[in-house]
C-alpha cells in the first residue's frame, strides 16, 4: 500500500483523526474560478456564491484563511463555449483558470490544501463528463485516458488532491497509473465514488455552464434508489487506490454515507452538500429566522452519518461561527 499520499499534508493527517463535532478542519470550500481574471460575479442560482477570477482570489481567501479555511475545491468556468470541443481541450489548458489558480493559491496561501475537481463537462462542446462515441454513448477507454491527462496536469501544477467526478469505470486505476508514470506518489485521489444521477445539481450546472447539451447522465451516474450500487462503486474505487471516497449528493443519501462508513471505517469519507442541498437549506433557513441552527443541523447530520470531511458552500459562514465559538460547534 502507498500510504504517503494519504498523509502528505498536515490537513490530511488531521482528517485521519476526525470526530463527530464540527471544526474548521472538517470543511472544503468549493470555488468557481472564472476565466475572466477580474471577475467577482454573483451566481444567480446560488445565493452568496461568486464566479471569481484569479486576480480577486487573494482578497476573497485572505479573510477566510484568517478564520480557519483549510481547503478549497476548484472548478473552472469558461467565458464562452467557443473553445469547448469533443475532448474538453480547455480542461488542461496551461493558462486556463484552474491551473492559474493552483499556482497562485500555492504561492499566496502555502498552508491551504488545494483540491481540484477533475471532469470534462465544463469543457466539452456536448457538456458530458467523458468522450462520446459517434452514437452519443460514452467511450469509456478514451474518457479515462483523457481524464487521467487532466488529473496529471493539475497534479503537476501543484494540486494536493485530484477529485475525478465523472463516474466512468476504472478511472481511479487509470489516474493512479498515470501519476505513477510521471513519478508522482504523493498526490491524493479523492474519488466521487458514489455519485447519484440526482436532480440536485441544477444550480451548479448554471454556475459552471456545464449542463449536457442532449440526453442526461443516467448511463454513468448511479440510479437514485440503489444503495447497493453506491457501495459497489466505492469498493471498486478503494480497490483501485482511491485515498478518499465520497457520497454525492449528501443530504438525501445519508443512508449510503452510513453504510459505507460502517463497511470501510478505516477509509476517509467525504460528503458533498451539493448546490441543490445548499439552495434548499439556505432558502428555508433564511425564511425561518433561525439561519444558524438550521444550517448547523444540516451539517451535524452529515457528521453523525459518518462523514469525515464535508464539502459545503456554507463553509464561509460556518468558519465565522466557529471563530466566534472557540473553534468548535456541537449539536
Ligand atoms: C462535474 C460536477 C458536478 C458537480 C460536481 N462536479 C455536476 C454534475 O455532475 O452534473 C455537482 C456539484 C453541485 O451540485 O454542487 N461532474
Ligand atoms: Zn462532469
Task: Describe what this molecule looks like in 3D.
The structure is a single chain. The chain has 331 residues and is of the alpha/beta class. The protein has a single domain (4-324), classed as TIM Barrel (Alpha-Beta Barrel), CATH 3.20.20.70. It is built from 11 helices and 10 strands. It has helices spanning 10-15, 54-66, 97-108, 140-157, 171-181, 202-208, 227-239, 254-263, 275-288, 291-305, 315-324, and strands at residues 27-34, 40-43, 46-52, 71-77, 113-118, 161-164, 188-195, 244-248, 268-273, 309-312. It has an 8-stranded parallel beta barrel, surrounded by 7 helices. Helix 4 crosses helix 5 (171-181), helix 7 packs across helix 8 and helix 9 runs antiparallel to helix 10. It is globular and about 55 Å long. The mean pLDDT is 95. The structure holds ligand PBG and zinc ion (ZN). Ligand PBG is lined by residues 117, 119, 121, 129, 165, 201, 204-205, 274-275.
Amino acid at each position: 500500500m502507498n500510504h504517503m499520499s494519504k498523509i502528505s499534508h498536515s490537513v490530511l493527517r488531521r482528517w485521519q483523526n476526525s470526530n463527530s463535532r464540527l471544526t474548521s478542519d472538517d470543511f472544503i470550500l468549493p470555488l468557481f474560478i472564472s476565466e475572466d481574471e477580474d471577475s467577482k460575479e454573483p451566481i444567480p442560482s446560488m445565493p452568496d456564491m461568486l464566479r471569481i477570477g484569479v486576480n480577486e482570489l487573494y482578497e476573497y481567501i485572505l479573510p477566510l484563511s484568517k478564520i480557519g479555511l483549510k481547503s478549497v475545491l476548484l472548478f473552472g468556468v469558461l467565458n464562452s463555449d467557443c473553445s469547448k470541443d469533443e475532448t474538453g481541450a480547455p480542461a488542461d489548458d496551461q493558462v486556463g483558470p484552474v491551473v492559474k489558480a493552483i499556482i497562485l493559491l500555492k504561492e499566496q496561501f502555502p498552508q491551504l490544501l488545494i483540491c481540484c475537481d477533475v471532469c470534462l463537462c465544463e469543457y466539452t462542446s456536448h457538456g458530458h463528463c467523458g468522450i462520446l462515441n459517434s452514437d452519443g454513448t460514452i467511450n469509456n477507454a478514451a474518457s479515462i485516458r483523457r481524464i487521467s491527462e487532466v488529473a496529471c496536469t493539475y497534479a503537476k501544477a501543484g494540486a494536493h488532491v485530484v477529485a475525478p467526478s465523472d463516474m466512468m469505470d476504472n478511472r481511479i486505476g487509470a489516474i493512479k497509473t498515470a501519476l505513477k508514470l510521471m513519478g508522482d506518489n504523493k498526490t491524493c485521489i479523492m474519488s466521487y465514488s458514489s455519485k447519484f444521477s440526482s436532480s440536485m445539481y441544477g444550480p451548479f450546472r448554471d454556475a459552471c455552464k456545464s449542463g449536457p447539451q442532449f440526453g442526461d447522465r443516467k448511463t454513468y451516474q448511479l440510479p437514485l434508489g440503489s444503495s447497493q450500487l453506491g457501495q459497489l462503486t466505492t469498493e471498486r474505487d478503494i480497490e483501485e487506490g482511491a485515498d478518499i471516497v465520497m457520497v454525492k449528493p449528501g443530504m438525501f443519501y445519508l443512508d449510503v454515507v452510513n453504510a459505507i462508513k460502517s463497511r470501510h471505517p478505516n477509509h476517509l469519507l467525504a460528503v458533498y452538500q451539493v448546490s441543490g442541498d445548499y439552495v434548499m437549506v439556505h432558502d428555508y433557513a433564511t425564511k425561518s429566522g433561525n439561519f444558524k441552527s438550521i444550517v448547523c443541523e444540516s451539517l451535524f447530520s452529515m457528521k453523525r452519518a459518518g462523514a469525515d470531511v464535508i464539502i459545503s458552500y456554507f463553509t464561509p459562514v460556518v468558519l465565522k461561527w466557529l471563530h466566534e465559538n472557540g473553534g468548535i460547534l456541537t449539536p
